[in-house]
Amino acid sequence: MKKFFITANWKLNGNIKMISSFFERLKLYSSVFLEKNIVIIAPPTIYLERVYKNIKNMNIFLGAQNVDINLQGAFTGETSALMLQDIGVKYVIIGHSERRLLHHETNDLISKKFHLIKELNLIPILCIGETERDKKNGQTQKIIKAQLNCIFKKLGKSVFNNTIIAYEPIWAIGTGLSADPKDVQLIHQFIKNYIKKHDKINTNDILVQYGGSINHTNVKKFIEQPDINGLLIGNSSLSLQEFLKIIKIAHDII
Ligand code: PGA
Question: How many domains is the chain partitioned into structurally?
């Protein structure tokens, strides 16, 4: 059985009312669907603790959507990895394309975050992926290599154990246009081979999620691909009904 991680990235969405109703209803289903999949919920920072209280006795883990490169000090408005750890966060999404594009995060900054997260024994979910233009110009592999190289450059050759990589083609995020599952399979294979070339890690321990316009109608073919180890889900994770449908499909296939 392959390891399968389903991450809900709520982005800048949700409120107290939504969280209460989401978990009240989710608790009714927990024991049935949540056994085989590893489910991670990444709410906005301000709701992390509230979500943590709700998932305490469920097989669900807490994820953060971002972290600062500093652990403490005069850094107004930031959140430290130590603080995330303190309140029960286990996974931290870094390098999401929205942070790369809208907040000008560079590969170098992202590799610093990666390093810090690993040092604290948290698990990074490292997002990588190409723009539509890169894809049209045949640059997908080159972009992915650069996004991975900066991690190797900063941290040496044995860094991808206990890490999740999320391949998210930027043109597929939030657009309703998911990538072709067979193309994604090939790119995941490429990512795994490339990491394997540089890192001593066993191929089976390299975990690559796909993200970009996943919903219950298109998810099956993604789950069936051998090198897709999970999903990073934005829009479809905000509706419990839709999210549960996806979890159930994964549960039945894996
Ligand atoms: P989406 O977002 O599922 O809404 O396309 C995915 C993501 O950005 O992680």
Answer: 1
